[in-house]
Amino acid sequence: MSKGSAPPAPDYVGAAKATAEGNLQNLNQQTAANRPDQYTPWGSSTWTSTPGADGTTSWTNNIVLTPEEQQALNSQQKIQQNQSQLAQAMQGQVASQMANGFTAPSMSSYMNGVPSINSNFQGFSPSGVGSVDQSHINANGYTGQYQGINQSFNSSAGPLQTSAAGAQVNTDPNAFTSGAGSVNLNAPQFDQATADAGTQAAYKASTGLLTDQWAQDTKNLDSQLRIQGLTPGTEAYNNAMQNTLRVQGQQKDQLANQAVLTGNQLANTNYASALAGYSARNAAQGQAFNQGLSSFGAANTAIGQQFGQNLSNAQLNNSASAQQQGQDLNAFNANNMAATQSLQNGLSQYASALQGQSAYNSAAGQAYSQALGSYGVNQQAQLNSNAAQQQSYAQAMQQYQTAYQDAYQNYLQPLNSMNAVLTGQQVNMPQMPGFTAAGYTPGTDYSSAASSLGQYNSGVAAQNAANSSSTMGTIGSLAMAAAVAY
Fold this sequence. Notes:
Elements (H helix, E strand, L loop, with lengths): L11 H22 L4 E3 L2 E9 L5 E9 L1 H31 L10 H4 L28 H4 L30 H4 L14 H17 L2 H17 L7 H77 L3 H108 L23 H40 L1
Antiparallel strand pairs: 1-2, 2-3
Helix pairs in contact: 1-10, 2-9, 6-8, 7-8, 8-9
């Protein structure tokens, strides 16, 4: 039995050509559909086609306006032509205006009467104010005549009767005055380190809150100057910035001077307190010393009284000697009391000298404060004058900027007028109403059809071959079975 032959191959080239011809025909139909003739109240839009030798089609769009629209278009074109001619005529005015360039107003005419910045800030000079007296007052100048207590008692009287023995006269006053201690001759000194430390602390405290404010003022001034068009490096910018920095420097100088005054006042207070303590201690020592001498005299007086009682029994023999002894002892005590009084007087004069020195220093400090206050008032007046100058300068600059802008506007007026004429009414074409364009539709796809047909025929041929092979196998099996049976 025959297996059959394969089907013939489809004509793929012919199918592709047929598909291309169909697509081209549909494209031409779509183009023709998108070329409608339109008729509106403003005019018409029509299309004409001309076939070409190569098979293509040329299209021409003809737009015809209504008589009214055509007349309006002609008028607009005439207006535009007139504007162009007018602008051309104005070019001469523009060229004449700009031939010599822009001449800015004279700034000097606006700055007349504006005072200059007073930068002659004088340093602080406290003329007529005495300096602090830091000299050391030597106590020896007031107590140098003090010769000390006479501790060696000698009497011109003869020896007393020894049978009238009693307590011995105390001839050593140190036993009574040693507890008073010695006079402190080392007066306290003015401590410059305390004044310096006080000055540094006062200056740090007074500038601690102003440092950030000074930085912010400088930054604000920079922003303000930049807004005014003044940049770093220009004279106006540098002058304004230097004035601000100068004012801040003057404020720092004032704070520094005030800090020096505060430090000196603190040191003077400590110095006066130390002097007061020093005087009080010496006064207490003198009082203790006098009390010791009084006790010394009282003890000797008691001994003398007891001794007199003991001598009463030997009065006949020793009365003259006892009387002389008493006179000598009284003279001895009187001398010692006079020496003690001289020491007390010297210490009192020494304390008065220290008090006078302290009063003088306080008066000098007060005079210094007054001079510094007057200096601050003068400096503030100068700062106020400079602030008024800055205000006058700013007003003059504002007037100058206004005049500058007016002059520049007048300078550009011919050019702006010419541009206004050129950018006037323009000619516009009337718009035709829109429409929905036809979409593209491809032609019949012969290539895909031919491919599908070829696949189908191949499948049929394969199935026929399979059926033929199965039939032959069945016949062979039956033949073998028959042969076995026989």
